[in-house]
Amino acid sequence: MKILLLQLEFSRWNTARPWSYPMNFGIAKTLRDNGHETFTIPVIPDQNVEFQMSWLGRARELCHGMKFDQVWVWLLHYPYTQEILEWINRLAPIRIGVLVESMQYDEDDYLRSPTLRNRPGIIRQQVQSLTHVLASDENDIESIISWGYRQAMWWPCGVPERVIVPFQHLVEHPKAVFHGTLYDKRETYLSQHRLQEFLTFPTSDMCRNEFHQLFDEIQIDMESTLKSGQFVNAQDLQRFVMMLDQVRHGEFRKWMEHLQSWAVIVNLPSYAKFYGGRVFEGLAVGRPVISWDIPNHPKNNALFQDGEDILLFPKDDSDGLANHIDRLLTDSNFAKHLVLNAQRKLCEFHTIEKRVRDVLQWVQSGVQPSYDARSENQGFSLKARETAVGWHSTTRGLSLLSDPQREKPIETLQKVKIGRA
What we know:
Blueprint: E1 2-8, H1 13-16, H2 25-33, E2 37-43, H3 59-62, E3 70-74, H4 82-89, E4 94-99, H5 107-112, H6 119-126, E5 132-135, H7 140-146, E6 152-154, E7 173-177, H8 185-191, H9 193-198, E8 199-200, H10 204-207, H11 210-228, H12 234-260, E9 262-267, H13 277-284, E10 289-292, H14 298-301, E11 311-313, H15 318-330, H16 332-349, H17 352-365, H18 388-394, H19 409-420
Parallel strand pairs: 1-2, 1-3, 3-4, 4-5, 5-6, 7-8, 7-9, 9-10, 10-11
Helix pairs in contact: 11-12, 11-19, 12-19
């Protein structure tokens, strides 16, 4: 199949950081690995949607003469105009929306961020051009179906299978860590005296790497090209997408190395009412995960069993969180027990490879996947990946900078510009 991806991206790393590799370029790679041809157009919310100022503004010109079997559209954050939505409606017989946010929130959330109330209306407008919708929040499925869209499927996050590595007792930082934006309850947790002993919020400098600057440089250079009015063709676009893919890929490798250096990964309360990337990624690098117990989301909470695969704490229970951290830091055998159990489920149910296969099968058959039924094959293998270093060194092309034969993105971009001059 030939699949068009209207894939969410951001213009600067500061805002792009929370948007994880597996749920954008990871999906594209998996589709290609399954024999499908992809054509990606980045949809960047802070780019002007006018014709000359964004990739999507030039989409009809760039896609002229192409025929697609499917279109995947990342929802909510990009302000799709009615004209663009009508164009999407004509592109392919199967049009799939990808929603990796929640639509419904607590009253406290609305008080802190009143614009959250606008999300259902925005999404309802955007899905009118689609045939299928994937939603990461289980409670949003009922709302989407009530709008008349019967083809809606709960679609949790996941990780690439190749990044799953075994538990290790030795760690660089023998503490628990939380990565994310500090707001509301999160600040309260990190200010608790007892938690300050166990829980760290890394500074941006601790997480920064060379790919963040590369990301910004590529975006700035291409924005200048678009604004100049120079002719840009489909090959230029795909070269730009390739460079973004390489940078995202390399940054994800660095991120997973950093994540593995901590003893425990913590998932504090958030606007998103489902397990985000940090839960799956923490388990993938062989670290035990502690998460808040998300109210009224039984399917999400059943993805990993409390006390056997993961440890949960009530939203307002900082002492419970501290007790969990203390136990994992002092009982490495229990930490290993949790990781091994969780990784069995991770390998079987929660890889991006399985997520993509599930979607394609669902579109064809109408049968939705199960995320908790055990298969007959109980075997479990990490495919001989003894350490994360082994995975990184054997995965060719994961890092731009590790391959002397691979051009750096900026050098490639300069060649593109020279060729058009």
